Amino acid sequence: MEHQKILVLDFGGQYNQLIARRVRDLGVYSDLKSCDMTVEEISAYAPVGIIFTGGPNSVYDENAPHIDKRVLELGIPVLGICYGAQLIAHTLGGEVEHAEKSEYGKREFSFVKESPLSEGIPARSVCWMSHTDRIIAVPAGFEVLASTESCPVTAYGSSERRIYGVQFHPEVVHSEYGNQLLKNFLYHVCGARGDWTMKNFVAEQVARLKEKIGDKKVLCAMSGGVDSAVAATLVHRAVGKNLICVFVDHGLHRKDEPEEVMSVFRDGLGMNLVKADAADLFLDALAGVTDPEEKRHIIGKLFIDVFEKEAKKIGAVDYLVQGTIYPDVIESGKGKSAVIKSHHNVGGLPSVVDFKEIVEPLRDLFKDEVRKVGTELGLSDGIVWRQPCPGPALAIRIMGEVTREKLATLREADFIFRDEIAKAGLMRDIWQYFAVITDSKTVGVQGDFRTYENVIALRAVTSVDAMTADWARIPYDVLEKVSNRITNEVKHANRIVYDITSKPPATIEWE
Ligand code: XMP
Asked: Which of 54, 104, 122, 473 has the highest local Cβ count within 10 Å?
């Protein structure tokens, strides 16, 4: 049976993806689509409920996005959030007041009337506000449901029409009962069944892939990253040996990574996994190269060459698997610009592989869902919670020329840092954490000897999407252990520094 869907119409606000993720977390599938969708398209999409997101506009702005009144006459429940709430009021004949001053931050609000939205929520609680205009009169047939001191219409609605609006943002964690309110909308207003679970997803996808692929051949570039690992495991569950995975060992991986990929996927899961040993090829090509972009270019090109060679050995295949995920395909907001991963390491593959069609089994999933699917498929936490690793891997964490000696030093230092982060239980709190070998040497004293060795920098950041990031506040005693261990256990490192720069102005990687 097809799962139920909630349609999140994007009016350009900053929390839009978050709304869709929250809805899915509550067990209902949701898609984020541009607010340009027509009433016919919405009707054909057949959602069990619609959410209008917030947005930066005032309903009175010349180019403000509007909504076809017929969308509100489809009989499908609607929840408007912030701008979405104002838009519903404005469209149905209520009154929105244009304000000069914004209201921003936590506010206490009170329900003035019970409704399906207020179930299980105390009469007074805290919500997160971020708006300028405000609703001062609700449309005929609607009732005010909640207010704050400065915002007379904090929530309103009509239980008969099953249309509601809230001025605050229930999707952000600062709204104490926001999640409960969304849940109420889904389950008490839209009649959701809660049929979106990763267990169902796996069962549905495996059946679908089996039917689509049958006994044809599929090829996948396995990088060891979460997305490609989960995509390959899912396809493998459906078609077994007809999936052929290629892992390119470019000699730039972190410590033990190639061995782990082979042991988990080939030995453990029994995948048809080919390893292309190309370390010397890559390292020779990188000799003498110091410019970061040139390194990226060389690695990207060689990766495709090596993959092409392997693909030729396999011959023509019917499908090529890619680990594309939902944030890569969302076409949201008014700009309609698709988000494209700027440095996707398998981006050039389709042009060199002889195949008929691309299979993207994760294209409907958010990252946290991909992780849950991985767990559902039996992959370990080490694979599922692996931090993102850039395509060029350690080559852009070695400042200046990449040499075998620097690689060996960096691998050990990086391993110790990761090991201590894992021991301190911080793996899931930090977005990325790694060591960098700088292009500087400093004087030190080890034993009774003077040393002149490399400076190792530790980089750890928190982030949601890698677009911006903050340096992670790792406890001093963890940093101390890492520093002691690296200087004691790793050759050619005598000084450790911690990077305390956010992005911007710095980037996450050093090159
Ligand atoms: P920056 O350093 O630009 O990195 O703040 C943002 C995110 O992208 C990753 N990154 C790369 N990924 N190829 C990749 O596949 C690359 O050349 C590359 N450079 C940076 C980086 O690790 C971070 O997650």
From this structure: 54
